[in-house]
Amino acid sequence: MTSGQASTLLTASGLTKTFPGTRALDGVDFELHAGEVHALLGENGAGKSTLIKCLTGAYRRDAGDIRLDGASIDPHNTLDAQSLGIGTVYQEVNLLPNLTVAENLLLGRQPRRFGFIARKAMNGEGREMLSRYGLDIDVARNLDTYSVAIQQIVAIARAVSLSGKVLILDEPTASLDRDEVRMLFDVIRGLRREGLGIVFISHFLDQVFEISDRLTVLRNGRLVGVRDVAGLDRLQLVNMMLGRELAEETRDHGRTGIDYAAEPRIRFSGTGRSGAIAPFDLDVHRGEVVGVAGLLGSGRTETAELMFAAAPKDSGSVTKNGKVLRLASPRDAIAAGFGFSPEDRKTSGIIADMSVRENIVLALQARIGWSRRIPRRRQREMADDYIRRLDIRTPDAEKPIGQLSGGNQQKVLLARWLATNPEFLILDEPTRGIDVGAHAEIIRMIEELCANGMSLLVISSELDELVAYSHRVIVVRDRAHVAALVGQDITTDRIVSAIARPTNLEAAQ
Amino acid sequence: MFAKTLLGASILASMTFFSSAVVAQTIGFSQIGSESGWRAAETTLTRQEAEKRGIDLKFADAQQKQENQIRAIRSFIAQGVDAILLAPVVATGWDAVLKEAQESDIPVVLLDRQVDSSDDLYLTAVGSDLHHEGVVAGEWLVGEVGDKECNVVELQGTTGSSPAIKRKAGFEEGIAGHDNIKIVRSQTGDFTRAKGKEVMESFLKAENGGKNICALYAHNDDMAVGAIQAIKEAGLKPGSDILVVSIDAVPDIFQAMAAGEANATVELTPNMAGPAFDALAAFMDGGTVPPKFIQTESKLYTQKDDPMKVYEEKKGLGY
Amino acid sequence: MNGTMRFLRRVAPQIATLAVVLLLIGFVFPGFFDLSFANGRLYGSPIDILNRGAPVALLAIGMTLVIATGGIDLSVGAVMAICGAIAASAITAGYGLPATLLMALGAGLACGLWNGVLVAVVGIQPIVATLILMVAGRGIAQLVTEGTILTFTNDGLAFLGSGNLLGLPTPVVIWLSMGALVTLLVRRTALGMLIEAVGVNRRASMLAGVNARLLLVTVYMVSGLCAAMAGIIVAADIRGADANNAGLFLELDAILAVVIGGNSLLGGGFSLVASLIGAIIIQSVNTGILVAGFPPEFNLVIKAVIVLVILVVQSPAIHGAGVLFSFARRSP
């Protein structure tokens, strides 16, 4: 679009960075024009964040040259880079949530009067800064009273005002919903018009296609290629990232073979908790994948937590093969053959400091009991087996899971539950924030598991994904189950409209 | 200033003379707490001495807190007691409340510890002389060993505490001029039995299994009791192979003396109240103004003083 | 890499530190390594270190487990005082030795149960929850002894503090056995791994089916039991329960032992053996200062400097620079 006549703003040539054991960047070239949005793509571990950290001075590069406006620069740290003109906004907003919006915007350079902070002037200045982004909010309120999207924009406003030439956005949309992403993109487009060079990192290919002008693909620390987005084929891009052919993920698989006449394996009747999710009925059959769709905060995670007894229910009952289950804790649920991979991998899933092996055997060991330790050799065998079967990328089973990429962590968590051989597995956002390759493999796993007779409940924001593997899709809105789609009705359009407005099913109730 | 105090004192004396003739005296006692056996014995003896004299004693336990003591003194003043005994937990911060007592013409006697306030704010202070105790212990050792060579090991109190500093200096003064007596090792035992034992063990190791040691001087009896166990466990006889002299005269050391395992102890008497009541009586009845410091006797006990009998006497005091 | 190698790599820094400290003491006090055998036991300064280090070593066993769960137990010093007081008063009241020990150890377990319930069930932060007993415990001990040093004469009880067993002082045998027992218990069963999991991420562990609550209570009870044993040993050693001074500030030495043992205060991977070596390092420093004959005013300063040097030398930053020994952060 704009790349033809735009002037070069930032160039890096021959960037190399080595860590003990790995070469994270290997002679990578990168070029950013003024007035463009430039996407940086690659699987986890491709070298994206290392490149960013070298550009912003968070890491010292081993070799290579960085030029800004033609002049060679050598930022020593992020502050240094900021003063040179390179600002960065991370996925986890690194502002101070307990200060006001205005304070966050102007921290360190608040307007002063008689040595005191002039609050009124500061608020005025803050409002003005945000108005540039079409944001009209009360800047005197604490930052944490606003949504992540607004915090994100505040962070951008602060970064732009401090640096003003290059803005690096690292996974800015990971925790935003659809409307919020649109709001953010409007802001990015505004900044592009003003001539900033913007580096955009995201796992969401749709978003990359929507907002970027050009893109750079990295793989294993090397530059794969630079392309104009206009006219770029999606499959071709995935191919560049993975270095191999990947079939489109929309294979239509057999949605038959489920005996709905038989007694369901698990039946939830009237299960609910006030304030979390309205009572719902749900049957899960043998070999069935039940998809759950809904926006963040709609009650989908609460549904999963209630099913797994991770949160107490205040109504309803659960039966398995017709027998009533008493589930008071996750331990009870696991004993009944349930498994649950939670949405927030970092806080609720992985035991970061512990090895891949220990993370895999944990749930099985907890179920067997503390006194009967799984022999170490058996643990190793199990771990190695799953590492091979799920293609977990780790040098060995003893590596701390916290050092793996998100997708590999997710596979380890999947292995943890597969090791317990569950009958009913709940997966909350199993593909969030993971790279394309791992994504496809996890979807393949889901299909394989249900083909082997396991029952699954999968919550996902990726509607294409739900459509691909679900036998049934439950739509959740405003803390209630509002629709159930089966068979030919499972399409992204139908799901979206069910999320957006009342359905016939609901009207009939 | 002095004349004014005298005047006030004599008016007070004449007033209390009448009252004491009619009803029993009431005296308030603000005690620090019961942090040690010695402190408990002081409380017991104060009660006994008061009972002996027909004094109505109002007792307040401050549990180691100055604010509790100040509150207790104020309530004594409000109750209109005839006099106040105060064992101050710290040295500073007493000016205001002592002035209040003075303005109400209630004489205050300090027990055991001193305060930093001006000395016309209280009648007198009763206490032991820590330095003198050390001198008594040192002089006993001089008399015991005569001209023989004698290597002494010393178990100090808590480093930097005033008993440790003064008892050390006093002992050194006591043995001064007798070059045959040398302090070869000196370490802190923190006034506790356990540390006394541990440090004594290291002394024994460092001094050729204890063969080079002729006497132990401990700043308190508890450390001596611990050290005696260490000496026994090293295969030596405390009391004969190694002489043991210490300070405080708590009951357990008399048991050790009776068993021949300790030789001498210098008493830090817990009877501070006796001299205090005597001074108060003389002041109130006859207007005799006591000196600002009344030193209690630092009595020396040895194995000849029928230690079992003393043990039985002291045992009931709450040590 | 096999298990033995991994273990040796884990404890190498602690063993090296201990060796350096001992050599230093040997340099200042030449007769330090002399050992002799008399009256059915070994004598010598190294044996004294093992003997005097018994209370901190015992406390460090429980403290290591508590710290591995991401907690801390500040009450152990006070629990020592309580249990020592109970042992002394029970034996003087005429109970037999077994009943006495049962009561004292039971009191330790009860204290641990109290801490564990506050932490795991009520949900109070460990540092605050155990602070309660740390403050109140010494008062409870004083109530038991009625403010005096409660002296006893029972030789059976005194044996636990100053007797000999298998050619060693009894306390040494007690802490070595307890250390071996607990190490076997956590490493031969899955307890060690489950404790580490809870320490690193309690919520994730619970969701994986680990009974975190029960585990936490158990760990604090083990800590209470260890404190009770330490309290009994200290009281037995001086044939008296000193409620004011028994175990005073030992909780800090126990925490220090765990830290010198290379265990993270944030919880997770732990090594009991390394903590025990840490306890012996601390006692070596203490004993070294005593036999060296420095004036007592320098004791604390010397100890602080040595501890500082040890911690700096063991810090990961130094290892990153590859200055000293290779350092594995976690044990198997």
Automatic annotation (TrEMBL), chain A:
Boundaries of every ABC transporter domain copy: 10-245, 261-503
Subcellular location, record wording: Cell membrane
Domain of life: Bacteria
Keyword Protein biosynthesis in annotation: no
GO MF term list: ATP binding; ATP hydrolysis activity
Record-linked InterPro entries: AAA+_ATPase, ABC_carbohydrate_import_ATPase, ABC_transporter-like_ATP-bd, ABC_transporter-like_CS, P-loop_NTPase
Mode of membrane association: Peripheral membrane protein
A Pfam family it matches: ABC_tran
GO CC field: plasma membrane
Record has Methyltransferase as a keyword: no
This protein's UniProt keywords: ATP-binding, Cell membrane, Membrane, Nucleotide-binding, Repeat, Sugar transport, Translocase, Transport
Family to which this protein belongs: Belongs to the ABC transporter superfamily.
Protein name: Sugar ABC transporter ATP-binding protein
Organism: Neoaquamicrobium microcysteis
TrEMBL record, chain B:
CDD domains per the UniProt record, alphabetical: PBP1_galactofuranose_YtfQ-like (cd06309)
Localization in the cell: Cell envelope
Native organism: Neoaquamicrobium microcysteis
One CC-aspect GO term: cell envelope
Family, similarity comment: Belongs to the bacterial solute-binding protein 2 family.
Domain Periplasmic binding protein: 27-285
Protein's UniProt name: ABC transporter substrate-binding protein
GO molecular function, one term: carbohydrate binding
Signal peptide as annotated in the record: 1-24
Main location, first listed in the record: other
Automatic annotation (TrEMBL), chain C:
GO MF, one annotated term: transmembrane transporter activity
Species this protein is from: Neoaquamicrobium microcysteis
InterPro entries per the UniProt record, alphabetical: ABC_transp_permease
Spans traversing the lipid bilayer: 12-33, 53-72, 79-97, 103-124, 172-194, 214-236, 248-266, 273-294, 300-327
Record's subcellular location: Cell membrane
Alphabetized PANTHER family for the sequence: ABC TRANSPORTER PERMEASE PROTEIN YPHD-RELATED-RELATED, GALACTOFURANOSE TRANSPORTER PERMEASE PROTEIN YTFT
Cross-referenced CDD domains: TM_PBP1_transp_AraH_like (cd06579)
Protein topology in the membrane: Multi-pass membrane protein
Protein name: ABC transporter permease
Keyword line: Cell membrane, Membrane, Transmembrane, Transmembrane helix
GO cellular component, one term: plasma membrane
UniProt keyword Membrane present: yes
UniProt keyword Acetylation present: no
Coiled coil ranges: none
